[in-house]
Design brief:
The structure holds 2 protein chains of 2 kinds. Chain A has helices at residues 2-5, 31-38, 94-101, 111-124, 130-137, 148-165, and strands at residues 9-16, 19-26, 57-60, 63-66, 79-81. By secondary structure, chain A is α+β, with helices and mostly antiparallel strands. Chain A has a 5-stranded mixed β-sheet, with helices on both faces. Chain A starts with a helix and ends with a helix. By secondary structure, chain B is an alpha+beta fold. Chain B is built from 12 helices and 14 strands. Chain B has helices spanning 14-24, 37-42, 78-83, 85-90, 93-98, 104-107, 112-118, 124-132, 149-152, 230-233, 243-251, 264-298; strands at 7-9, 28-31, 50-53, 63-66, 69-73, 135-140, 143-148, 153-155, 158-159, 166-173, 179-187, 194-204, 210-218, 225-228. In chain B, α11 crosses α12 (264-298). Classes of the chains: A alpha+beta, B alpha+beta. At the A-B interface, β4 and α5 of A face α2 and α6 of B. The structure holds flavin-adenine dinucleotide and FE2/S2 (inorganic) cluster (FES) (2 copies). The site of one FE2/S2 (inorganic) cluster has 12 residues of chain A, from loops. Flavin-adenine dinucleotide is lined by residues 29-37, 39, 74, 101-102, 106, 110-111, 113-115, 117-118, 123-125, 161, 166-167, 192-193 of chain B. Chain B: It comes from Planotetraspora silvatica. Chain B: InterPro entries: CO_DH_flav_C, CO_DH_flav_C_dom_sf, Diverse_Substr_Oxidored, FAD-bd_PCMH, FAD-bd_PCMH-like_sf, FAD-bd_PCMH_sub1, FAD-bd_PCMH_sub2, Mopterin_DH_FAD-bd. Chain B: This is Carbon monoxide dehydrogenase. Chain B: GO terms for molecular function: FAD binding; oxidoreductase activity.
Chain lengths: 166, 299
């Protein structure tokens, strides 16, 4: 597109999942598109592009944000973690294992967003209440699961996390 | 959809930002958290020629609280203000309202000042600023002005911030002693914009009778609707106030419109219910804070 419109491209450097990545992007490139198209990381999904569904959620310097509501140029020089970066040394993270164990996913479209959101949530709150879990995932939509197993998975992930650190 | 093209400016300091805004004039827009602007761009409802990205201006990521109130800088994110202990102590309504603004993930990026400039009549923070009688500080190349909340909200999605101007901070005044606040709203889902919502502030005298009571209503007019109900409450203890009469007094002052989410009549009804709920909550809060002050005085 920008090749055709002759738009100015900005050279940016992002640390994505611990790896330094460079890209030349027009200013209007959404971070979601930069990750998927420029960097080939298609784990981050795009549902609505107006902040409502949460599928595109990634971690920016450790905090969950909507990648569809962030320009890639704005986060030049920052650290991004996508769903591809959650597994540790080839082993699924506690949150990923809990989602798999509790059937917290069906088609998997919403899952990358849930995983990133929940990973940051359980890092900051290791023993969440039911209320807190509901609030934490309230910004992510899932058309398949009916949410009950997702809620179970979050609690299970907290358990796994506690078992493994204790 | 994808945003239309624009010229991108990433100033290294405030002066440079104001210069870029001055040059861009009516074609320029500030990019703060992007949580309202980028959806508009993605949906192609806005197509500014120039965006001035203030995310690098970390000197604007400030929150300072003293006895007079809380000043929030243009790059202070909703989440940071919500978590700030001193802001919460001086003006608890900030955190009470922010818990209702969108979802935690949106609050990680969105800014309080951006929310004020965006001036959505359904948004919580404009109602908070209006209720407290706060102000917004607008800077332009070679000048600065403070605009009172009363004059800042001009219409739906329209604030007093002119082309070439940037909002650098907003000030949320503290309330006198024995005051309390509450924010109550009804939304289709938690985190959605409110179908109706009410922010309330109540101040009690030494005998715990109401000496000041105000509400600000969202989603029922082009701008937040502030109504002073001190007279209707009539210097009585909260338990003997005729809350139905207070609710009616507010309902007479609002001009709700119907849309796909709610009819005008339903919004009017909800506002009445929420006025009572918020004012009672604020009065309880005021009584608690009065009791605590008295306790500290004795100790
Ligand atoms: C799914 C979703 C749900 C939401 N729900 C709510 C909700 O329930 N309640 C609510 O209040 N908000 C809600 N929001 C909006 C959110 O609070 C935004 O963060 C806020 O409205 C705008 O702040 P921002 O920093 O993101 O501004 P931006 O999106 O960057 O900017 C918004 C507008 O303000 C202008 N602007 C921003 N900062 C300045 C400045 N310093 N000086 C001059 N102009 C400026 C921009 O040019 C633009 O016109 C929601 C957003 C999403 C995506
Ligand atoms: S694609 Fe970003 S929130 Fe839906
Ligand atoms: S698993 Fe299909 S949308 Fe959530």
């Amino acid at each position: 597109m920008s090749e055709r419109t002759g738009e100015h491209r900005h050279a940016i450097t992002l640390t994505v999942n611990g790896v330094l990545r460079e890209a030349a992007v027009p200013a209007r490139r959404l971070l979601s598109d930069c990750l998927r198209h420029d960097l080939g990381l298609t784990g981050t999904h795009v549902g609505c592009e107006h902040g409502v569904c949460g599928a595109c959620t990634v971690l920016l310097d450790g905090e969950p944000v909507r990648s569809c509501l962030t320009f890639a140029v704005t986060v030049d020089g920052h650290e991004i973690t996508t769903v591809e970066g959650l597994a540790e040394r080839g082993e699924l993270s506690p949150v990923q294992r809990a989602f798999s164990e509790c059937h917290g996913l069906q088609c998997g479209f919403c899952t990358p967003g849930f995983l990133c959101t929940v990973t940051a949530f359980l890092r900051d709150n290791r023993t969440p209440t039911d209320e807190e879990v509901l609030e934490a995932v309230s910004g992510n939509l899932c058309r398949c699961t009916g949410y009950q197993n997702i809620i179970k998975a979050v609690h299970r992930a907290a358990e796994i996390q506690a078992e493994e650190s204790g | 959809m994808k945003p239309p093209p624009f010229d991108y400016h990433r100033p290294a300091g405030l002066g440079e930002a104001l210069q870029a805004l001055a040059e861009a004039g009516s074609h320029g827009k500030v990019l703060a958290g992007g949580q309202s602007l980028i959806p508009l761009l993605n949906m192609r409802l806005a197509a500014p020629g120039h965006l001035v990205d203030i995310n690098g201006l970390t000197e604007l990521a400030t929150i300072s609280a003293d006895a007079s109130g809380v000043r929030v800088g243009a790059l202070a994110r909703h989440a940071a203000v919500e978590r700030d202990g001193s802001a919460r102590a001086v003006q608890p309504l900030l955190a009470q309202a922010l818990a209702l603004v969108a979802h935690p993930v949106i609050r990680n990026r969105g800014t309080v000042v951006g929310s004020l400039v965006h001036a959505d009549p359904s948004a919580e923070m404009p109602a908070v600023l209006a209720l407290l009688g706060g102000s917004v500080r607008l800077a332009r190349l070679g000048g600065e002005r403070d605009v009172h909340a009363r004059d800042f909200f001009v219409g739906p999605l329209e604030s007093a911030c002119l082309p070439g101007e940037m909002a650098v901070s907003a000030f949320f005044p503290a309330l006198p002693e024995r005051s309390g606040t509450a924010f109550c709203e009804v939304a289709r889902r938690h985190g959605d914009y409110a179908v109706a919502g009410v922010a309330a502030a109540v101040t009690l005298d030494e005998d715990f009778r109401i000496i000041a009571a105000r509400v600000a209503c969202v989603s029922v007019g082009p701008v937040p609707v502030v109504v002073d109900v001190t007279g209707v409450c009539g210097q009585r203890p909260p338990a003997s106030v005729d809350w139905d009469e207070v609710a009616r007094a507010v309902q007479d002052r609002i001009e709700p419109e119907g849309d796909i989410h709610a009819t005008a009549g339903y919004r009017r009804h909800l506002t009445g219910v929420l006025v009572t709920r918020a004012l009672r909550g604020a009065a309880q809060d005021a009584a608690r804070s009065g009791a605590n002050d008295a306790g500290e005085g004795r100790a």
